[in-house]
């Protein structure tokens, strides 16, 4: 029998009238699952704010918004289409989108799925990001071409597509839109049918497909405001089977039935909106460690060159990037896993108080998933060793020690 371990070693602070009061630098909750050498180790500690407004123990079964780990899962779904020949990673995406799609300063440069998946397409998160689900994403990008600084949606002219890395959620909204146009299926439904259901996972983007039973276990993303934990997301998940939707002001009456297929890839948040638990992440990590799609994703499509700056590294956090996948090089800033960091692949997430990670080792077949809730948005203690926060690096080190990897 596979050994599983889940325990509570304490909470982030004291519980007073269902409110958790943190000690200095403590988090609301955290947990990890690590596999190595046929053994499984893990822990879950702290509290989770549920839909009933009460704090209860955080466990590996509670679903949450996993943030940008979602991108890697979206990319995996896209790679299933690429591997069966339905899409070409190096084709002009205009053919899939049904209209010419270019950076206005580089009209002769085709944009390809490879450029989108590697954040080298020249797309950015615009000043009015994101585009509400009932509005056209490509329409917004066309309009941005005539705005000052492209409305923040497109790179400066000197940062030509294919030559410059800049992390942007918008790339994955376009990828989701391509999936819809190629498959004639809504992005969330495609991901459920192609990946989640075959794995037996009760998970989904923006809660799509997630059972009511599991929604009742939701852990809201929280931040401490100086006097109380405040929910940032998922305090009240919509009742099943409704997904969560980002509506424009005045569109409260619109439902998912009003969504027009292939019009706006932001609709189901392929960039960050996947809801799942630590246990679910562990299942996905095992898939990534073994699947040929993940091996294709894991090769570096972009690599930072300090001698000739070719991208934005977020203070060294990004040194190389594959197709929806982070590729640590083991330089000081991205040596997240110690001396063998160059053998790890995966993705981190950071939004609404949650900091997450799903990683696998390409040589040892070890896997690691983790989640931390309650992270402040600013003034976060940084690791003295890497570009991660102190809390992330401490949790990773704890997991690696638990598995005997350091």
Could you walk me through the main structural features you see in this protein, from its secondary elements to its overall organization?
The chain is α+β, with helices and mostly antiparallel strands and 406 residues long. 23% of the residues lie in helices and 18% in strands. It is built from 10 helices and 15 strands. The protein has a 6-stranded antiparallel β-sheet, with helices on both faces. A 3-stranded antiparallel β-sheet has the order 6-10-7. A hairpin with a 2-residue loop joins strand 1 and strand 2. Helix 1 packs parallel to helix 5. The two termini are 25 Å apart.
The proportion of strand residues reads: 15-25%
Major sheet attributes: 6 strands, antiparallel
Please give the alpha-carbon distance between the first and last residues: 25 Å
Q: State the order of secondary-structure elements, H for helix, E for strand.
A: EEEEEEHHHHHHEHEEEHHEEEEEH
Structural class: alpha+beta
| Count of discrete alpha- or pi-helical segments spanning 4 or more residues | 10
Could you list the spans in which at least 5 consecutive residues all have pLDDT below 50? 1-25
Which strand order spans the largest sheet, edge to edge or round the barrel?
5-4-3-15-14-13
Helix content estimate: 10-25%
Give the oligomeric state of the chains in this entry, treating copies of one chain as homo and distinct chains as hetero: single chain
Radius of gyration (CA) equals 20 Å
Shape: globular
Q: Compute the number of strand runs.
A: 15
* Mean pLDDT score: 92
